[in-house]
C-alpha cells in the first residue's frame, strides 16, 4: 500500500523539528497515486463528515438536557467526549481535504474528482458550521 501521508496528520502538513513542513511519504504527483487509494481517501473523509453531523445531532440532543433533571455527570462527560472526538475528526477531515485538493489539482482525470472534491468541501463546511452553532 502506497502512502500519501497518513490521514491522521502525522505526515501531511505536520512540522518537522527543523521548522519546514514534513512531507515524507506524501506523493504530490497524482500520477503516483493509485485511483483506488484516492477513492479510499474520499470515502474516509466522507465518513468523517457523516460522523461530525451525527455528533452534532447527538450534542443538540444532550444540550437540551443540560440544566434539567436529566443533567448528570455522565451526560456532561458524554458531551465533553463527543466534543473532543468532533474536534479531532474536523482536524483530520480538513487535512484530508487539503491533501485531496493537491492530488486533484495535479490530476489528469480531473472532472469527476473535482466535482467530488467540491461536494465534499461543501459538506465538511456545512458540518463545521452546524458544529460551530452548537458550540455557542
Automatic annotation (TrEMBL):
<dbReference type="InterPro" id="IPR010989">
    <property type="entry name" value="SNARE"/>
</dbReference>
<dbReference type="Pfam" id="PF14523">
    <property type="entry name" value="Syntaxin_2"/>
</dbReference>
<feature type="region of interest" description="Disordered">
    <location>
        <begin position="1"/>
        <end position="28"/>
    </location>
</feature>
<dbReference type="GO" id="GO:0016192">
    <property type="term" value="P:vesicle-mediated transport"/>
</dbReference>
<feature type="domain" description="Syntaxin N-terminal">
    <location>
        <begin position="41"/>
        <end position="136"/>
    </location>
</feature>
<protein>
    <submittedName>
        <fullName>TSNA1 protein</fullName>
    </submittedName>
</protein>
<dbReference type="InterPro" id="IPR006011">
    <property type="entry name" value="Syntaxin_N"/>
</dbReference>
<dbReference type="GO" id="GO:0016020">
    <property type="term" value="C:membrane"/>
</dbReference>
Amino acid at each position: 500500500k502506497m502512502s500519501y501521508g497518513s490521514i491522521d496528520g502525522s505526515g501531511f502538513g505536520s512540522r518537522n523539528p527543523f521548522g519546514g513542513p514534513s512531507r515524507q511519504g506524501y506523493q504530490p504527483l497524482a500520477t503516483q497515486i493509485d485511483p483506488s487509494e484516492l477513492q479510499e481517501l474520499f470515502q474516509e473523509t466522507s465518513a468523517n463528515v457523516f460522523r461530525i453531523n451525527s455528533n452534532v445531532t447527538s450534542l443538540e440532543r444532550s444540550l437540551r438536557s443540560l440544566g434539567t433533571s436529566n443533567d448528570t455527570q455522565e451526560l456532561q462527560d458524554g458531551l465533553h467526549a463527543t466534543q473532543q472526538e468532533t474536534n479531532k475528526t474536523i482536524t483530520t477531515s480538513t487535512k484530508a481535504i487539503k491533501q485531496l485538493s493537491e492530488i486533484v489539482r495535479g490530476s489528469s482525470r480531473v472532472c469527476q474528482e473535482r466535482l467530488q472534491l467540491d461536494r465534499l468541501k461543501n459538506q465538511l463546511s456545512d458540518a463545521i458550521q452546524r458544529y460551530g452553532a452548537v458550540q455557542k
